[in-house]
Design a protein that fits this description.
The protein is an alpha/beta fold. The protein contains five helices and five strands; from the N terminus they run βαβαβαβαβα. Strand 4, helix 4 and strand 5 form a beta-alpha-beta unit. The two termini are 14 Å apart. 33% of the residues are buried.
Length: 126
């Protein structure tokens, strides 16, 4: 089923296999985007181009998901808010969801990613 709106999504994950899986699912859903291997690189990419959403892994070297989320919030302005952030993790984020939501996350996905879950989250954002 095609998306309601084509989204540009930044996938931030240090695992190349997870990046490829996310990129393939996004293409199958009709979305486009870019890949970053850590939060620091993601912040650089976000300075250069806009995205409609971010799929952000929590556990990464250099700058992890929570530090990246904090930096996004610090850089956001009323004129340029940060895009919705969908946290991605192998852990169950629901047990601490209030913490992640308060930190600025919009939603979450549990690994391994599947097309129905990614589609549902992105349709909710789009």
């Amino acid at each position: 089923m095609p998306p309601q709106r084509t989204l540009r999504v930044l996938v931030v994950d240090d695992d190349p296999i997870q990046q490829r899986i996310a990129a393939r699912l996004l293409r199958e859903l009709g979305h486009s985007g870019a890949l970053a291997g850590n939060g620091e690189r993601a912040l650089q990419i976000l300075q250069q181009q806009p995205f409609d959403a971010i799929l952000l892994d929590l556990n990464m070297p250099v700058l992890d998901g929570m530090a990246t989320l904090a930096a996004l919030r610090a850089q956001a302005t009323a004129a340029r808010p940060h895009p919705p952030v969908v946290l991605v993790s192998g852990d169950d984020l629901l047990t601490n969801w209030d913490y992640y939501r308060t930190a600025g996350a919009t939603s979450y996905l549990q690994k391994p990613l599947d097309i129905q879950a990614v589609s549902a989250r992105l349709q909710h954002l789009g």
